[in-house]
Amino acid sequence: MRFFSDNAATVHPAVMEALAAANHVDTAYDGDALSQSLDRTFSDLFETSCEVVWVSTGTAANSIILAHFVRPWQGILCHEEAHIEVDECGAPTFYSGGAKLMPLPGRGAKIDIEALKTRLAGIRKDVHQVQPAAISITNATEYGLSWEPGEVGAIGEVAKAEGLKLHMDGARFANAVAYRGCSPADVTWRAGVDALSFGFTKNGAMMAEAIVFFGGSGGAGVRELKKRGGHLLSKGRFVAAQICAMLKDDLWLANARAANAGAAALAEACGDRLMHPVEANELFVRLTAAEAAQLRAAGFDFYDWGEGAARLVVSWDQDAATVAPLAAAIAAL
Amino acid sequence: MRFFSDNAATVHPAVMEALAAANHVDTAYDGDALSQSLDRTFSDLFETSCEVVWVSTGTAANSIILAHFVRPWQGILCHEEAHIEVDECGAPTFYSGGAKLMPLPGRGAKIDIEALKTRLAGIRKDVHQVQPAAISITNATEYGLSWEPGEVGAIGEVAKAEGLKLHMDGARFANAVAYRGCSPADVTWRAGVDALSFGFTKNGAMMAEAIVFFGGSGGAGVRELKKRGGHLLSKGRFVAAQICAMLKDDLWLANARAANAGAAALAEACGDRLMHPVEANELFVRLTAAEAAQLRAAGFDFYDWGEGAARLVVSWDQDAATVAPLAAAIAAL
Amino acid sequence: MRFFSDNAATVHPAVMEALAAANHVDTAYDGDALSQSLDRTFSDLFETSCEVVWVSTGTAANSIILAHFVRPWQGILCHEEAHIEVDECGAPTFYSGGAKLMPLPGRGAKIDIEALKTRLAGIRKDVHQVQPAAISITNATEYGLSWEPGEVGAIGEVAKAEGLKLHMDGARFANAVAYRGCSPADVTWRAGVDALSFGFTKNGAMMAEAIVFFGGSGGAGVRELKKRGGHLLSKGRFVAAQICAMLKDDLWLANARAANAGAAALAEACGDRLMHPVEANELFVRLTAAEAAQLRAAGFDFYDWGEGAARLVVSWDQDAATVAPLAAAIAAL
Amino acid sequence: MRFFSDNAATVHPAVMEALAAANHVDTAYDGDALSQSLDRTFSDLFETSCEVVWVSTGTAANSIILAHFVRPWQGILCHEEAHIEVDECGAPTFYSGGAKLMPLPGRGAKIDIEALKTRLAGIRKDVHQVQPAAISITNATEYGLSWEPGEVGAIGEVAKAEGLKLHMDGARFANAVAYRGCSPADVTWRAGVDALSFGFTKNGAMMAEAIVFFGGSGGAGVRELKKRGGHLLSKGRFVAAQICAMLKDDLWLANARAANAGAAALAEACGDRLMHPVEANELFVRLTAAEAAQLRAAGFDFYDWGEGAARLVVSWDQDAATVAPLAAAIAAL
């Protein structure tokens, strides 16, 4: 049974149906009706004017936004375990033409606000030192923590005071919002976020992520970055269709709630093994090598997370009922 | 009726079925069974050992191959109307970290071999001038010409003599091969081609192109370029599945033959209007503004190609029968 | 006797004295009094507010200005024989993070204004095609032609109408201005030039070029490009000192006039051999291989310029008198 | 009295004389006799075959070497306070096309060997994580520590075992070697260093640094990186002349010994105030704001180094005698 990644999960039937429904002739690239509908749909969802650009991976979404926000000689403040820092083969630096990631510490992969301020204060304002132009936070974080609107707001205030853009990597934004039960607006633009990578692939789509700029247009250059990166699919309506399907009737929320519920059920079984609170669909648990082997022998698949620890991810197509066997197996260790 | 682009065509039912069939759990990224099968499948097709990397756009395929073949301070010789030169927003320069495209003339968008030799002879071998490291040709060309194996071989010999890599942009490789009736090997590696961008999207897939390195491994760095460009889809099996479906029972050839047949039928109707021989699925025809308006009024959709000319593209889902109305309309002009 | 390049010329005694005079303690980098004086000095010379940044090579000057004017996905229109296109190993593309040089024809290496307009009209305004953001012209041109203010103004009007920045590569700006006898302002900002690479090295300095932005500040980012390119010399006062010495008492004009006078004297001897009018310090002359060999045997050193032609450059430290032997030798051929 | 930077020091008279002596006609760029002599001169000094490329700044030297050693998607391990990490505006990332600096801790700005091994062990060997390709160390370090040959050797062994290139930033290499009294070879290639940025500017030159590749040629591409970066000065003999003058009769060692002696004399006066051992020409001393103000009032100029600390740099043109007033002033605090 799979718990190693929501990247390996299936595609939701509604998304498959949407792909079939999109299989008729329409304009190429992103001139089709589905692509053209996204600005309006997201503007409704986020209760503000949005500019939306679809891409097929989260790495592309993060990189294009960040490249749009910083110049090659500037920097991007992020958590030292952020996906953009450790898992994207340097993509944001590639897209931005050389921008420097400036890693910061913080519990559960949330940037520590004091560390952020200290770092900013320590940068000499001259041409010798790289000057940051953006902050990037991840919601839910690499350790499955969901940001409270107030926490994002605190980062947003620093960003505003320093003239920095604020980006949110929302590869698991749905899980984070589902957990908080807040409005998507509260944890994004109302808290100072300028742009969001809104992920759908892990949550039931096939290859579909939305770059969302809040407050109208993101400005010139974004679509050039996308085209130049080879991300303007010629039959782009098939990406837009996935996003539309995920937003329809709040499928994105329903899927995230299912996964979160599975994670919560597992969390109960894990008890003291938990290394972080479970606020989305990921669990980080203490597990000896012997215990891990025992679970694997019983058919459960997951990642080791360094020595004596493991990561368990519950996907949208799993829920409390389907995770019961693993919960039982862990409880029985 | 659509004749403006094969990019706007539908997806073949067999590809849709393959996507549905791939909708079960498997490893993320490109570790799945379908992705892993590609090297063998293409090696069979091309009668030599191949390394294959899937991507979702032709721009990504071209750019990754070229970036792999040249260093940032080197150049890429190509036709002055090549897609990489005029239609990719500088993507090959972006991916390569700055390589210079070196455009050459030639009829029907085939590089003129004498112009190639003259250009090469004119470059001083010093650090002031950009030294080319690759040649890129397109098959079928931007004007729908299909290369004969011997013509490719002539370019291949120059490439070999000068120590240059030879890339073939095969966005419409299927149409070119279908027209020539040759072995895919004859017009690629046997003629000196080092790597091919083998396009499937225009020919019935949804978003699937294969980077094919001939003669074993393409070497270190290709997969890093792909990941860094944001092209390593997390549910990559859905791209590999499309390619597998297109190769199964030579669907790629059948689709291309259908489109070519439609183009041939149209060509007959166009007679003297043709600006180039029709050797694939594209026609470039002389058409006055009034004639173009008349055809559009009759429901036919196509691109103007400068003044007094138009481009007509027949897609895989159109054939001789379905193009009959346009053929008749043109004949009646 | 040297006629192969003004790059090989000596350094003027006044520059050597200025270096010696600068050999005392002052602030590092460009905080010293000499560096700080440049804005004012050039503002006086150009009769408008200027921001000036010193660098040590013309390639750095051109590249930093152009990188400042264009984004990586944009283009730079220039003559097909411009130094930035053929002799800088791709430096402007490197500094700009990938901008495309868009070469244009034109007699004597002056951009043909009609070719410029045609090229601009032919670019589709979409994300597929690279959109130009700057025009770069060279004065004196690669063939030693000096621009008339009105000619520059015609280019400047196109630039303004299209929203493009206009850059002038002035590696031999002194020779061009000396020939025209015009005000430096007339042939630059008054004609629409936004920034000038003002060269001093060929004209008597050791390694000193000025980036000149007209109309106040060049804007944010220039100094970062310079630092990031490794061009912020720690003992920068020694570059600024050269520039100050060259500007003092119009030494730059005196040197250029000497070289131009030498070139004019040679031109008279060359008669029908001249391939271009001589409007600066370079001559391009028809010369058979046998004639070239004969001159070389007589001790004259120069570059072949393709078959049957040669380039003769007169340097600041040569004048009408010193070129007399070559003039006589050519006349005697 | 200046103690704020050796970048502000004067140029040694022998260097000024060498510049005057080089002021005759010779080939442009780096084809002149002085430039051509460098390989041999450095090969003698380092007791092995060397390829040497002159540049005018340390940032250029570091960046070109590192860009030559790593591909854009790879990383460079360095100390978290290394000049390349904190003081070059991202130049190594710029020149390399995007390589990631991977900072490590360590006392006195020497990379901690255990931290290095731990970091290397923690990197997954996949395309998601940036793989390092080089290690860069600084000698003398940012805190004025000089490496023992054995310490370098320990890093060199790790580099060799992991297939990484080892670069030494020797902006103050002369001071480090002078302190150790070792052979230049012992602390470089014999200890595993592949290339050295050998700095002369801080030590009495005007703008001259040598890129030194040990063991024959550095390989293809270095000179293209230099040209492309705008660092191939057209009158390059004036940089080569400075280097030749610095190497003649071991002027580089004499100058470094003078500066080191001055630093040692100051160190004695500083006693317990010293934050690091003084092994070159820099001192880092505890100093209250009041004490700093008192020294400045007495005419001594230096940098604050965070709160309660200061950096004092002794230059080649200062020695034990000339630093006596500051020594006395500190002793009297």
UniProtKB/TrEMBL annotation, chains A, B, C, D:
Cofactor: pyridoxal 5'-phosphate
Keywords: Pyridoxal phosphate
Superkingdom per UniProt: Bacteria
Pfam family, one: Beta_elim_lyase
Domain Aromatic amino acid beta-eliminating lyase/threonine aldolase: 3-288
PANTHER family for this protein: L-THREONINE ALDOLASE-RELATED (PTHR48097), LOW SPECIFICITY L-THREONINE ALDOLASE (PTHR48097:SF5)
Subunit structure: Homotetramer.
Descriptive protein name: Low specificity L-threonine aldolase
Species of the source: Sphingopyxis jiangsuensis
